[in-house]
Amino acid sequence: MKLLRYGPPGQEKPGLLAADGTIRDLSGVIADLSGEALSEAGLAKLAALDPASLPKVDGNPRLGPPVTGMKNFVCIGLNYADHAAETGAPIPKEPIIFLKSLGALSGPNDDVEVPPGSVKTDWEVELAIIIGTRAKNVSEEDSLSYVAGYAVCNDVSEREWQTERGGTWDKGKGYETFGPLGPWLVTKDEVADPQNLAMFCEVDGHRYQDGSTRTMIFGVQKLVSYVSHFFTLHPGDVISTGTPPGVGLGQKPQVFLKAGQSMRLGIEGLGEQTQKTVAG
Length: 280
Description:
Layout: E1 2-6, E2 13-17, E3 23-25, H1 40-47, E4 56-57, E5 63-64, E6 73-77, H2 81-87, E7 96-99, E8 105-106, E9 112-114, E10 121-122, E11 125-131, E12 147-154, E13 157-158, H3 159-163, E14 179-180, E15 185-187, E16 198-203, E17 206-212, H4 220-228, E18 238-240, E19 262-267, E20 271-279
Parallel strand pairs: 6-18, 8-14, 9-20
Antiparallel strand pairs: 1-2, 1-5, 1-15, 2-3, 3-4, 6-7, 10-13, 11-12, 11-18, 12-15, 16-17, 16-19, 19-20
């Protein structure tokens, strides 16, 4: 299934994308895409529905983040061998974890703000894992049973704030609009191998990132297990798993975002996002 949330910010309703490309309203079935609705039993209930029996949503509504009610927006740094190489960083021996502010979360096609005074706002297409069941100290062997599905994430970053302003990476990662997620949650049964997905990111039509989850250092099973030993993961929580090479920081000369540009990014089978950059 492809599950989504549609409507104005703060007023989103749950829905699903039918095979014919129409959005079908789920608000008569579940309150939202959160909590128990994301569990295996909750997803099985939704999968048993006939989309044609659900109200059709007319027009082209805004899409919000495909899940809500999360407690953690976890990100993994330098998790692609080829991306680590382009930054000159050594291959991590263990996953590098940082937290992105929940206030950064936004819809997949919402505008991205370039903060006042920013000189190094950057893009990062990433595979996001969406947790469906509370996970604490889980094993690698069992970790996928805690996953509801996957989505596209743009881990927008301000590199000067991230690495040149002291403190941790979080400082450059949590600005409002720096976490576009979606367009939908694709349930894990539709993703045969999360470690073999093509992914890309374009800025103003130029393709900067053209990679694959094959070059991840730590895969999905490892990451869910590993993170669950440091944070209890809850339904709707997101683990954004790192980015392939081609970020602005890695260009020669370096390239960073300015207001008035457009980004287009996507992952095989998970859909695409399109954002415009605006002055913050």
